[in-house]
Amino acid sequence: MRHWHVSFLSFCCFFMFLFFILFLLTPYDEISATRTWSFDLINKTCKTCSDKSIVFDYTFCFLSLQEVPVSHMTTLQGLGIVAMEVALQDATRTLSVVRGLLRNDSSACLRDCDLIYFDGVVTLVDSVGAFLEGRYGDAGAWVTAVMDGTSTCEEGFRDMDEVSPLTERNYSVFQLCDVALCIMKLLNSDALSF
């Protein structure tokens, strides 16, 4: 089963690589026109999502999506994939950080966060697969579970009166998942005309 997750993760990376190659092969004048359209799409998506939620961070959404080259020439579905891929990368990096911290500190909070992020990475891989198949309900439920996990990780330190070394990372993964979740909701509604 784990082998399948690694293979699927490789497939997702290859998918992003293909989009990046297409971006590089597009003539400059087409890129300029596409970027204008895509920045409008990113702006409109982030604005709509931030209007719907008090915890959604417009600036974080816009900067995170526009940083990825493929987002400059994609659709709403493509932005959803970008958000999920960036969330997956962030969660994977956070798992690595947690394991690094565990070498010097075996606190219960860090051990809990290790399990949470291990499960979160696997869940995000599954979510990307469901999203690509158009199963937005499943993908949304799994992304929500990852968001809950980041909150649980952070609350564990608070409950033990410890300073969390993962606050910024938990926030980042939470917000990226929130972007992906909002896009899934938009894809299932007529909230935006793209």
TrEMBL record:
InterPro entries per UniProt: Invertase/methylesterase_inhib, Pectinesterase_inhib_dom, Pla_a_1-like
SUPFAM superfamilies assigned to the protein according to its UniProt record, in alphabetical order: Plant invertase/pectin methylesterase inhibitor
GO CC terms of this entry: extracellular region
Bilayer-spanning residue ranges: 6-25
Molecular-function GO terms, alphabetical: enzyme inhibitor activity
Ranges where the Pectinesterase inhibitor domain occurs: 40-183
Keywords for the protein's UniProt record, in alphabetical order: Disulfide bond, Membrane, Signal, Transmembrane, Transmembrane helix
Coiled coil: none
Similarity comment: Belongs to the PMEI family.
Protein name: Pectinesterase inhibitor domain-containing protein
Taxonomic lineage from the root: Eukaryota, Viridiplantae, Streptophyta, Embryophyta, Tracheophyta
